[in-house]
Amino acid sequence: MRTAIEHAGAERGLRILPHGEEQRIAAEARTGRDGVDVQLQHALVTPSDMPDSLLRYVIRTRESVILDDASTQNLFSQDEYVRQRRPRSALCLPCEKVNLVGNPLSGEQLGARPCFTPKRLAMLELLASQAAISLDHARLYANLGRLKC
């Protein structure tokens, strides 16, 4: 998360993991004076956490979405989060591995300029795929540990 936020130039980012039919926030990263602070969580995603319509769109289509100026009219303009928080830029991308949907990574920036450039998106997609592989390996090792006991 720390690396993704630093490379994105985002002020805030979420790592979302599926939990049955629900989506849960696994981690939240925020930039501050002392760098990027990452908090592990296991909370349901709510409309106050991120644009729900954006998350659902990315899960359904498996496509990355970049909003360079979330204040302009777009598919997600009427989302409760966008109307209330008015993020300047927003990004949501799927972390996919072997055609499996899952684990969106979301970021936002509240500053004056768009921050999610194509180069940054390419880097984030690489980081997201590596994160998906790492999570998959961690689950496999956890399952192996349970089988041995």
Quick summary:
The chain contains 4 helices and 6 strands; from the N terminus they run H-E-E-E-H-E-H-E-E-H. The chain has 149 residues and is of the alpha+beta class. Helix 1 packs antiparallel against helix 4.
Describe the overall structure:
The protein has 149 residues and is an alpha+beta fold. Helix content is 36%, strand content 28%. It is built from 4 helices and 6 strands; from the N terminus they run αβββαβαββα. Strands 3-2-1-6-5-4 form a 6-stranded antiparallel beta sheet, with helices on both faces.
How many individual helices? 4
Radius of gyration: 15 Å
Mean pLDDT: 78
Structural class: alpha+beta
Q: Which percent bin holds the helix content?
A: 25-40%
Number of strands: 6
Strand content: 25-35%
- Sequence stretches where pLDDT stays below 50 over 5 or more residues: 97-103
The coarse overall form would be globular
Order of helices and strands: HEEEHEHEEH
Largest sheet: 6 strands, antiparallel
Spatially, the strands of the biggest sheet line up as 3-2-1-6-5-4
From the N-terminal CA to the C-terminal CA, the straight-line distance is: 32 Å
Using brief descriptors, characterize the structure shown.
alpha+beta; 36% helix; six-stranded antiparallel sheet; globular; 149 residues
Task: Give the SSE layout.
Blueprint: H1 2-8, E1 12-19, E2 22-32, E3 35-44, H2 52-61, E4 65-67, H3 80-85, E5 89-93, E6 105-109, H4 118-148
Antiparallel strand pairs: 1-2, 1-6, 2-3, 4-5, 5-6
Helix pairs in contact: 1-4
